[in-house]
Amino acid sequence: MLLFVADDLGPRHSGVMDNASKTARQRAREEITGEIITAARARLAEVGPGELSLRSVARDVGMASSAVYRSFPSRVDLLTALLVEAYDELGSATEAADPGGAPRDRWMAVCRATRAWALGHRHEYALLYGTPVTGYAAPQDTVVPATRVIVRLVQIVVSADPTLPQAAATFGAEVQGAVDSIADATGATVPVPDPEVIGRTLMAWSGLFGVISFELWGHLVGSISDHDAYFDQVALRLAGDIGIT
């Protein structure tokens, strides 16, 4: 979420009263921000991110546009807040679903949680992984929240100590950016695998989200009769390609 600079509070008073006053102001700001975000998500479901506007959100929450602009100076700021919140919700859902223990069980639990969140939050999923919003470039603030799912998958792969199946070609410099990003995101919590493991995990990640997107947008209709079973089969086979057995 965005941080706000407190308005001029006038003369300062020391002690508990001043702290209580600032806490109340901060609580009020957070409440207003929450109302705006809730209204923006509802509006997102109606018109999509391309048509989202601060003025329409202001009308929905019964505020003057200037009040909304104080919290979100531009539409870009509002879109960024929505992205960060959605990425964090998805990341929290997948992390909470991780049961620990056997890597295969962890992998399936995280994959299923990702799909469940997407099916339950179609419009937010579309914002994250659908058609890019024209003229919007996601800022650095979104990078860490956006990598939470792939970081968790990498952690599971590392815990499996995978023996990779033979491949006709191997990944190298072309996935170095992903290697660096995951190293930054995980810090010292896990050793970063070699590029081949990262490349295969990225393949699995994009494959999983491809299946989810096909299901959400109706592209599996007429081809797949049992979406649950099909997704599980895809997730298991992708795990096997990374060496999770």
Name the descriptors.
single chain; 245 residues; mainly alpha; 0% strand; disordered N terminus
**Order of H and E elements:** HHHHHHHHHHH
Which segments are poorly predicted (pLDDT under 50) over 5 or more consecutive residues? 1-17
- Tell me the number of helical segments per DSSP (H or I, 4 or more residues long): 11
The level of helicity is 55-70%
Q: How big a fraction of the residues is strand? A: under 5%
Q: Between the first and last Cα atoms, what is the distance in angstroms?
A: 39 Å
Largest sheet: none
Strand segment count = 0
The outline comes out as globular
Write a structural description.
The chain has helices spanning 16-47, 54-61, 65-71, 75-97, 103-120, 122-129, 143-146, 148-160, 176-186, 195-216, 227-242. Helix 4 (75-97) packs across helix 6 (122-129) and helix 5 packs across helix 11 (227-242). Helix content is 66%, strand content 0%. Mean pLDDT is 86; it is low at 1-17. With 245 residues, it is mainly α. The protein contains eleven helices and no strands.
List the helices and strands and how they pair.
Layout: H1 16-47, H2 54-61, H3 65-71, H4 75-97, H5 103-120, H6 122-129, H7 143-146, H8 148-160, H9 176-186, H10 195-216, H11 227-242
In short:
With 245 residues, this protein is mainly alpha-helical. 66% of the residues lie in helices and 0% in strands. It contains 11 helices and no strands.
